[in-house]
Amino acid sequence: MTACIVGWAHTPFGKLENETVESLVVRVATDALIDAGLGPDDVDEILLGHFNAGFSPQDFTASLVLQADPRLRFKPATRVENACATGSAAVHQAVRAVKAGDARIVLVVGVEQMTRTPGPEIGKNLLKASYLPEDGDTPAGFAGVFGKIAHSYFQRWGDQSDALAAIAAKNHKNGVDNPYAQMRKDFGFEFCRTESEKNPFVAGPLKRTDCSLVSDGAAALVVTDVATALKLNKAVAFRGTAHVQDFLPMSKRDILKFEGCTKAWGKALAEAGIALSDLSFVETHDCFTVAELIEYEAMGLVPEGQGARAVLEGWTLKDGKLPVNPSGGLKSKGHPIGATGVSMHVLSSMQLMDQAGGIQVKGAKLGGIFNMGGAAVANYVSVLERLR
Question: What CDD domains does UniProt report for this protein, alphabetically (predicted)?
């Protein structure tokens, strides 16, 4: 254990009409430092996770964090980007800075504002996280990319419509009790399973309830070394971390295996000295329900092709043997790209501190996080444990 999370902040996710990228950044940066019991003078380094890709006209954003307090002026600030794993990329950079001794206290912020962008432009922006020579003309944007993945999975392993609906229903039910979630409504299995005017097919076998939401939002956390953390009010330690990058073109790999995800989980669990079964819960990247389905297999919860068992037999329910996405996941919570990975670490820390309210997993001791960019291209895993 080389680093700990000692404070955090989180805005609601959704359509935040009265906010800007700057106001969101300032809000969470200020609140995270207050939550940690630290001041701007204590910060050694700042990392901002911001995907952008056209969502915001302001594209040089690292220094926006300095707007939170004049005392942050002249601190090193860097914007980090790795597609939909941008938030976790910033978090892991903070851990590395602390581990290397380059910084004692690092402020990490993740932000995105997506809802002001017209619908067609949203699809174009998100497709920039794919390999454009192969996927640039995909109908329905990034949903179309995962629609092709779902279609291929169905061809190889049979119709998985029940499993996808069960994942969507689970995550929507969990999200009802998440005060930060964009969609706090329990749709139930039948609604998610059935095509309707309110739940049409979007791409391939994926319906609207299979797709995460376009969102605005921000989250922030403060990372420090263990010795410093133990002097503060709370300490959630990184017991294991891993980052694995895979080929961008899907044609260069078996896209149904998420091999980068598998390797990242293996490395992080080995560093933590635990097995997957030791985890109390997992927050995983359900940008689309088929992604969560394949991630069950990639993390080693079930054998290849048997992802449906994990949800249909209740293993991943909030009271199951390995609760997955007790927060409601991206499906319910929303997916403001740059904020997502930071949000996962904030909500997991809240779980481990027994401060998660209605989404609390009883007796949570160890939490696992998987955040990915693109179609399992950038793969980040964190294993967290409460120290105090």
Answer: SCP-x_thiolase (cd00829)
